[in-house]
Design brief:
With 273 residues, this protein is α/β, with parallel strands linked by helices. The chain has a single domain, classed as Rossmann fold. It is built from six helices and ten strands, in the order ααβαβαββαβββαβββ. The strands form two sheets. An eight-stranded mixed sheet has the order 3-2-1-4-5-9-8-10, sandwiched between helices. Strands 6-7 form a two-stranded antiparallel sheet. Bound molecules: S-adenosylmethionine. The site of S-adenosylmethionine (SAM) has 17 residues, from loops.
Amino acid sequence: MDNDQLVEQVRAMRPWHQDIEINDQVSSGKAFSPDGKLLPADNDNVSLISPRIRFERRAEVLYPEGLAGKRFLDCACNAGAYCFYARELGADYSFGFDVRKHWVDQARFVQQHREGFPADRIEFREMDLYELPKLELEPFDYTYFSGIFYHLPDPITGLKVAADLTRDILLLSTSTATQAGNPLGLTLAYESREKVMSGVHRLAWFPNSPEILVEILNWLGFAEMKVTKDVSNHKQRNRTEIVAAREKGRLEGLEGELKIPLVEGARPHIDWM
Ligand SMILES: C[S@@+](CC[C@H](N)C(=O)[O-])C[C@H]1O[C@@H](n2cnc3c(N)ncnc32)[C@H](O)[C@@H]1O
């Protein structure tokens, strides 16, 4: 396929959420404009993001020797950007899955046509997070759980599915809700099952603060947590990003606010008679 045909195909596959390089001239964003920008109004209301730099900066700190010998898992992989970046940094294997055919088709299209970047030892699956344990996969070193927590009817079980497969680091990026007086709660929401960026179960929950996520991650067996982004501007929906590590001290050097889970005496307790 020459570049003109590639561009035509990429355009036909819109909307795109992730700008990914396919060769040194064509990316899923550059197929629409020379600077890779595509407004939501021209993209079925989906925002196009370029997450490469953020991914690479974080990986440089967490894995200064690169990702050689590491297994990378991306939950809700969309068009597969993080799986491709992890392979570029030397990961042995990347596995990404998404519940929507639309996105998995994009990921496989990029994989099939990538030139000048590694595209082998990457697998994509169209599947629901809750089905993941059935695959009985080997554990992963580094897991992305980005943009999926708040699309789940039971986000704690969902996060546990990913955590149980993670032996080193898990990145959790999620929208949050502001609920005065209930920082350690989850806020109920209903979402469309049909919109391409949404979940498929209709019922969804927004965490009310980074602190509630720290408690859940600690309960899931992570010893150290850092909030690397927290946009709490007191509007209805905010954004939080937390990096969690199995081992204490593992996140030294990573910029962010170290979070200590609640100590026993401060934990909300219910003592039934
Ligand atoms: C906001 S996008 C986030 C995409 C990507 N992870 C990122 O950070 O750029 C939400 C993604 O979650 C996927 N998704 C929603 N519910 C899912 C589920 N139960 N299992 C797997 N993927 C799901 C959607 O299809 C969509 O690709």
